[in-house]
Amino acid sequence: MDAFGKQGWQFEPLEGKDVIRTVFEAYHTSVHLHAQAFIQINALSIVGEAPMSVEAEHEPLILELLARANKKLTLGSLEYDLDREQLMFRITNLFERDKFDADIISSMVHAAIAEVDRITPYAAVIQQTPESLLDDLSVERLLLRDDLIPPVPEDDDGFS
Asked: pTM to 2 decimals?
């Protein structure tokens, strides 16, 4: 909570849990974010999510997209929650005992927002592809499109 406060980010604590929730407006989508502390092991997990309903015939390509995108990530991972229909990015860090570094937390939040926002338009292309053309869609080539990548923010952190 201190790290979020230092950044001026609004958040809502989840009563009775070591969890806070918030929403950030990114370039392509709203990112629902929650941060959960695991006090016993001094860990923090940040999860960014965007709702995305995917038709069954599109699911294999969405999952392939995330698997291919994950190969290029150093930290964290992209996921799709089939039950809740959520596109997700999860990153976790272990901290020194009783020392949650605000700069690291801020970087984790930025990574979660950026990765959900970055993958959303690629997933949307798959979602919008007619079923009759899915066999012709190359996810590997789709990921080479740089016209779908959000622009780099200039003066501020790019998130509100």
From this structure: 0.89
